[in-house]
Amino acid sequence: MKIQAAFRSIALIACLVLPAIVQAQKTSYDFDRTTDFSQFKTFAWVKGTPALEPFLDKRIVASIESQLAARALTRSDGNPDVYVLYHVVLGVQKSVTGFGSGSGPFGWPGDVGSFSARRNDIPVGALVIDLADAAKRELVWRGVGMNEIDVNAKPEKRDAAIDKAVEKILKNFPPKPGR
């Protein structure tokens, strides 16, 4: 009986936790409501926290530049309106899956119960994109995206995944007036 109760508890926890692990990329953003984003026309890069993986960093920079260009911002290293920086945080999320068997529904004596569990490590990453007012040197907009990382993906899939992530993070930039 104790094994059945333990199995039910673990199954319930797995049902609650598993959807959080396999959800699609999560994004959020926040911004300074006193900032007039329509005044920003140019940007320059400032060092943030790169991934320390040259190909990944190049993909992120290219994707952010492309998204900012689509929003009519041009790169100007001389006297920019905003500074852009990004931070990459890589980690591992733990996942436990299990299977159990035990006594029947009537709890017949002598039945043998068993349970096996497996811990899985899921690589996850977060990309934070910050924009700071160059004149005031203050953060005015931040977007964050979190997702699982496919370490076995081909370069083309990595490009597409980064482009999709950056597009989703910058979806609400610039914020609409009055928001």
Question: Which secondary structure elements does this structure contain, and how are they paired or packed?
Answer:
Elements: H1 2-22, E1 26-31, E2 42-45, H2 54-70, E3 74-75, E4 82-101, E5 114-133, E6 138-148, H3 155-169
Give a short overview.
This protein is of the alpha/beta class. It has a domain at about 25-95 and about 120-170: Double Stranded RNA Binding Domain. It has three helices and six strands.
Question: Could you characterize what this model shows?
Answer:
Helix content is 30%, strand content 35%. It is of the alpha/beta class. It has a domain at 25-94 and 119-172: Double Stranded RNA Binding Domain (2-Layer Sandwich), CATH 3.30.160.670. The chain has a six-stranded mixed beta sheet, with helices on one face. Helix 2 (54-70) crosses helix 3. The longest helix is centred in the N-terminal third of the chain and has 21 residues, at 2-22. It is elongated and about 65 Å long.
Specify the CATH class of the domain at 25-94 and 119-172: Alpha Beta
E-strand count: 6
Distance between the termini: 56 Å
Main pleated-sheet profile: 6 strands, mixed
Beta-strand percent range: 35-45%
Shape label: elongated
- CATH topology group of the domain at 25-94 and 119-172: Double Stranded RNA Binding Domain
Mean model confidence by pLDDT:
78
CATH architecture of the domain at 25-94 and 119-172: 2-Layer Sandwich
Give me the side-by-side strand order of the main sheet: 1-6-5-4-2-3
Q: What is the CA-atom radius of gyration, in angstroms?
A: 23 Å
Helix content: 25-40%
Helix count equals: 3
> How would you classify the helix and strand content by structural class?
alpha/beta
